[in-house]
Write a structure and sequence with these properties.
- The chain has helices spanning 6-18, 28-45, 50-56, 58-65, 69-75, 83-104, 118-123, 127-132, 148-164, 170-195.
- By secondary structure, it is mainly alpha-helical.
- The protein has one domain.
- The radius of gyration is 17 Å and the shape is globular.
């Protein structure tokens, strides 16, 4: 990927800045889905590879396809020497391991584990011990069911926001897409929580801390 992607970077930043002006009061799920489909189509037309797009837009496909452990590794294995993708893939695999153990009370069965070493997985006595071995998610400890997903999103947003200011290059594109998807998910949570009168700090993302 030798293109400079200057125009695409500019367009993506404008989309991020304008996202809050376009939020519907009804049909938030369809709105989020449409926004993702439109963005994915734009990136594909600009030459961003299918492997990269599969990773960046994994939210719906993971639910639809019911991925197993080996599918997760395949999904987050291609970074094509893009540093932002390398970080993003490692973060997602780390988080998959943490969430797997939180929900199933057993360790995942992967051949590699992002930034968590296999020996640390094997020797982890409990989930807190496992979390501490992640380069990215140590602050999730002590982990709680009610807010771990919110905290994960906030950590990821803080990680990629500085990279999103890169105006030239595919690294800036990838970082902006990650922020855009996080903002879409945050908007959906915010709209639904207001609808049901649950404006809880445990679930509503705060990307400004």
């Amino acid at each position: 990927m030798t293109q400079d992607y200057l125009d695409l970077n500019v367009r993506l930043m404008k989309q991020i800045d304008r996202l809050a002006d376009d939020v519907p009061e009804k049909g938030i799920d369809a709105w989020v889905r449409t926004k993702r489909q439109e963005l994915r189509a734009t990136l594909s037309s600009e030459g961003i590879s299918t492997d990269i797009l599969e990773s960046l837009f994994h939210q719906e496909s993971m639910i639809e396809k019911g991925y197993q452990d080996e599918d997760i590794l395949a999904l987050f294995s291609s970074d094509q020497d893009i540093e932002a993708m390398h970080i993003y893939n490692a973060m997602n695999i780390d988080f998959y391991c943490i969430e797997y153990m939180l929900r199933r009370h057993e360790k995942p069965h992967l051949v590699n584990y992002g930034t968590i070493q296999k020996k640390d997985i094997d020797s982890a006595k409990d989930l807190e011990n496992l979390i501490y071995k992640s380069n990215y998610f140590r602050e999730l400890s002590p982990i709680q069911h009610k807010n771990y997903r919110k905290k994960m999103d906030e950590i990821m947003y803080r990680t990629f926001k500085p990279r999103a200011y890169q105006g030239i290059g595919v690294d800036g594109v990838v970082s902006k897409v990650i922020l855009y998807n996080l903002l879409l998910d945050s908007t959906r949570v915010d709209v639904k929580s207001k609808k049901f009168g649950i404006q809880s700090p445990e679930i509503v993302r705060n990307f400004h801390v």
